[in-house]
Amino acid sequence: MSNAAEPTIYQAIGGDPALAAVVDDLYARILRDPELCGFFAGASMPRLKGRQVDFFAAALGGPQPYQGASMREVHRGKGICQEHFDLVAGHLAAALTDAGVTDDTVGQILAAITPLASQIVSMKPAGQLAAGQEPR
Ligand code: HEM
Question: What is the pTM of this model?
Fold first, then answer.
C-alpha cells in the first residue's frame, strides 16, 4: 500500500522515466562488461529494456503488475552463475547511484532484487548444476 506520507520506491525515484534512464545506463554497463555482454548477443535491446523497466516498476511498487514470463522461465538454460548475477546487481547499484538515487534507497532496491538469484542462477562457475537444481 502507498499513500502520500509513504511513497513507494517507484514513486520516490521518479517513476517510469527515471527507471527508463537507469535501465538504459544499466545495459550500457552490461554490454561493456566482457563477462556479461555475450549473454545478450542475440537480444533485441529495445524490447529487453522495455521489459526490464516494466519488471523493475512492478518490483518497486509501481501501479502495474508485471505481465511477462517468470524470471525462471526467461533465464532458463542460459548458464547464468551467481557471479554473473552479482555483476549485474553491481551495475544496477552503480546506475542507480549515478542517477542520484540515495544509498539508502539503492540498498532497498538491491534487497528487493537479490533474492531473484534463486530463480535466475542455474549454473555453478565450474559448469555444474547448483545444489538441488535440475537441468534447465
Ligand atoms: C537483477 C536481476 C535480473 C532481472 C530483474 C532480470 C530481468 C529480465 C527481464 C525482465 C527480461 C525480459 C524477459 C522477456 O523478454 O520476457 C530478461 C531477459 C534476459 N535476461 Fe535478465 N534479469 C536479471 C539478471 C540477469 C542476468 C544476471 C543475466 C545474465 C548475465 C541475464 C540475462 C538475460 C538474457 C540473456 C535475457 C534475454 C534477452 C533476449 O534474448 O531477449 N539477466 N531479464
Answer: 0.91
